[in-house]
From TrEMBL:
Pfam family for this entry, one: DoxX
The organism of origin for this protein: Geojedonia litorea
Family according to the record: Belongs to the DoxX family.
Signal peptide: none
Transmembrane segments: 12-34, 54-75, 82-100, 120-138
Swiss-Prot/TrEMBL keywords: Cell membrane, Membrane, Transmembrane, Transmembrane helix
Domain of life: Bacteria
Protein name stated in the entry: DoxX family protein
Main location class: membrane
InterPro entries: DoxX, DoxX-like_oxidoreductase
Length: 148
């Protein structure tokens, strides 16, 4: 089981993709967890998720942790495949519950009811590749296997 989770090659592909995805996802997590970048912080986000959106508290909590702590773990290349799988599920959930109804395109001109889902296709694509190949060069995953 340990090998399936932490196995990775020594390429730069995993490194580039995990850094890219972590840089994109972390600010969203920081909004939700810390209130950075104009976010509402943990309490405000949990209130929105549970009271307005109607999510169970555990789902709201997991979303916040995945987007914040998960992005830091991804940046370090720790449990890359597990984080990538979680991100695929998360992005699919976000797309199906919030963005599908707004069409494909982002709301560049402010003339849609909300954002489309094109961003999440990229998110899922990057996470899918990470799920298949692992964290790559300089990942904590690689050092766990090499040193065990």
């Amino acid at each position: 089981m340990k090998t399936k989770i932490f196995n990775t090659d020594d390429s730069y592909i995993g490194l580039i993709l995990r850094i890219t995805l972590a840089i994109v996802v972390f600010p969203h997590g920081a909004q939700k967890l810390l209130g950075w970048f104009g976010g509402y912080g943990f309490s405000g986000t949990m209130g929105f998720f549970t009271e307005t959106v109607g999510l169970p508290w555990i789902i709201g909590f997991l979303v916040i942790i995945l987007e914040s702590i998960g992005a830091i773990a991804l940046l370090a290349g720790f449990a890359t495949r597990l984080i990538a799988l979680s991100y695929i599920v998360l992005a699919l959930g976000i797309t199906l519950t919030s963005h599908l109804k707004n069409g494909f395109f982002m709301n560049w001109y402010g003339n849609q009811a909300g954002e489309g889902f094109e961003f999440f296709i990229l998110w899922i694509g990057i996470a899918l590749i990470l799920l298949l190949i692992g964290g790559g060069k300089y990942s904590t995953d690689r050092s766990i296997l090499v040193n065990s």
